[in-house]
Amino acid sequence: MIGFHWCTLRTYVSTIGSGFGDVIICLPVIDAIVDSCPNVFLVTRSFRQAGIAERITGVKGEIAESQLELADGDRYINLRNHPLQLNHLWGSPEFESFFGPTEIEKIVVAISKDFGFEIDYKHLRKLEYTNRSELSHCVALVPGTDIYHKHWPHSYWMQVHDHLKRNGHEVIVLGRPSESPAVERFIESGIKWFETPTTADSIDAISSCNAVIAIDTGLMHVAVNQGTPTIALLHPSNYHMRSAPNCFNLTGSFCHPDCRRDLTPSPGFNAAVKLEVALKFDHRECTLPLENNCMAKIKPEAVIELMKKQNILSLSV
């Protein structure tokens, strides 16, 4: 047991990684800490995490990890400072022989328990948001990701977009074209782009939409957390599958031998502090033929059929 059962002058908490989605996945832990301790602050590990704290109920503020200085009586809950993080490579055969299947929610539950907080993913607490009523009838497409192998083919996105439009649904794309060529291609294709220059804007937009179709990225996890009906398009080696009843998962196949995906762990992959947990930026889309593209195994028809089956949208044509 790593945890403590007392509260301090200030409680600082940092999440399992340095990405936007890492904070969202850890919200049940943060909420449990807020319920137990006053004066909770989020420690951010990268610019991707800046601006989230103001939307987490009960969190007093945020501070960059590089600027964190603890005073007497302060407590720092560093969720990376745990044997599951320090001693293992998630997804590896070694890890799965020790822990079982690599499932992010189970991992976070185990880490949280050792810090003294019992959590589950059955009752997610929403981030605070401002409703954007103009998006209430919109389906949001989220194609952008920082990870190469998570992309879904652009032509497949367009087929889904066209089907939704034929059925009378308004469709928008969310993301930042300056950071994502996938989003930029959507805009060049004439798809309506809803601009979200800040983290708060992104949370507002995704929380206000009628439905979301997304690859595994931070906004997908926001949609799941906010209760928005979500179709999640996942790589099979990805352990970020979510269990919430509003999330419906589709998975591709494992990478073809010709895939250029680099499976070498990045330096500091199991580090606990000092931003050594590097963000991976690889915005390239797969250049293999569709028949060899791992994510292309998720067909546009499967997305449409899943939306029909779950009564997410009216789709008759």
CATH top level label of the largest domain: Alpha Beta
Give the full name of the CATH homologous superfamily of the largest domain: Glycogen Phosphorylase B
| CATH topology type of the largest domain | Rossmann fold
Describe the sheet with the most strands: 5 strands, parallel
**Structural class computed from helices and strand pairing:** alpha/beta
Distance between the termini: 56 Å
Strand tally, please?
9
The H-and-E topology, N to C, reads as EHHEEEHHHEHEHHEHEEH
Helicity level, as a percent range? 25-40%
Number of helices: 10
pLDDT < 50 stretches: 1-5
* Rg of Cα set: 20 Å
Just name the CATH architecture of the largest domain. 3-Layer(aba) Sandwich
What is the topology, as strand order, of the major beta sheet?
Answer: 6-5-7-8-9
Number of domains in the coordinates?
Answer: 2
Topology record:
Blueprint: E1 11-14, H1 20-25, H2 27-36, E2 40-44, E3 59-64, E4 75-78, H3 83-86, H4 93-99, H5 104-114, E5 138-142, H6 154-166, E6 170-173, H7 181-188, H8 199-208, E7 211-215, H9 218-226, E8 230-234, E9 247-251, H10 300-309
Helix pairs in contact: 6-10, 8-9
How would you portray this structure in words?
- It is built from ten helices and nine strands.
- The longest helix is centred in the middle third of the chain and has 13 residues, at 154-166.
- Helix 6 packs across helix 10 (300-309) and helix 8 crosses helix 9.
- The strands form two sheets. The chain has a five-stranded parallel beta sheet, sandwiched between helices.
- The chain folds into two domains: 11-114, no CATH class; 133-265 and 280-309, Glycogen Phosphorylase B (Rossmann fold, 3-Layer(aba) Sandwich).
- It has 317 residues and is α/β, with parallel strands linked by helices.
